[in-house]
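Module 6 notes. Inverse folding takes a fixed backbone as the condition and produces residue identities as the prediction. Think of it as a translation problem where the source language is geometry and the target language is the twenty amino acids. Below is one complete input and output pair. Work through it position by position during the lab.
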């Protein structure tokens, strides 16, 4: 019965964002020598352990952020490294592209997640990102840093502005959804698509 009621409740709560206390502290996007440098920091009302387990759940991460069609873990590579795949639609104004990434994932439980894209299997010639998760009082400070060089065209004058805007919206969305799940004792695997 619980599994049946959850999708109904989620529809009624318009995307699960009813109680939003996410505080966006800073969002910054710079382009240096053709590489985008992204920094985002927010305060989320959920435990660091919960945030870590949610962010590293690549088999279900696509449920957390809009616009992501697929995210999943792949078999370990020949050296035993954790691999993941994602496919998403990225739009800057009316320029849209389906983007694929194969990535190495390295987690330091409840503290940080490092992601390194495999260029020859992705739409990026370079892409590294990191989540830092830090308990601060009753909330968690969540920091996202990324440096990337896409293999596709991004409009130079509006690209950084559009990426900053999308990052701010996504940070608030992900934070709100994590707070909603945390307050109800739910995990991503319990959320229907």
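Target side of the pair, the amino acids:
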């Amino acid at each position: 019965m619980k599994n049946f009621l959850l999708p109904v409740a989620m529809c009624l709560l318009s995307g699960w964002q009813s109680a939003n206390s996410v505080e966006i502290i800073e969002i910054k996007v710079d382009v240096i020598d053709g590489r985008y440098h992204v920094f985002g920091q927010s305060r989320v009302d959920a435990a660091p352990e919960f945030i870590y387990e949610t962010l590293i759940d690549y088999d279900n991460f696509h449920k957390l952020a809009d616009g992501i069609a697929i995210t999943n873990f792949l078999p370990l590579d020949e050296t035993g490294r954790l691999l993941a795949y994602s496919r998403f639609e990225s739009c800057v104004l009316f320029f849209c592209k389906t983007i694929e990434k194969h990535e190495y994932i390295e987690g330091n439980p409840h503290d940080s997640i490092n992601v390194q894209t495999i260029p020859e299997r992705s739409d990026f010639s370079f892409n590294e990102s990191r989540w830092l998760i830090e308990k601060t009082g009753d909330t968690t400070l969540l920091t996202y840093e990324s440096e990337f060089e896409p293999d596709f065209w991004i409009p130079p004058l509006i690209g950084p502005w559009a990426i900053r805007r999308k990052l701010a919206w996504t940070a608030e969305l992900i934070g709100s959804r994590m707070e909603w799940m945390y307050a109800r004792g739910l995990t991503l695997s319990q959320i229907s698509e």
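Reference fact for the lab report: Helices lie at 2-12, 48-55, 159-184.
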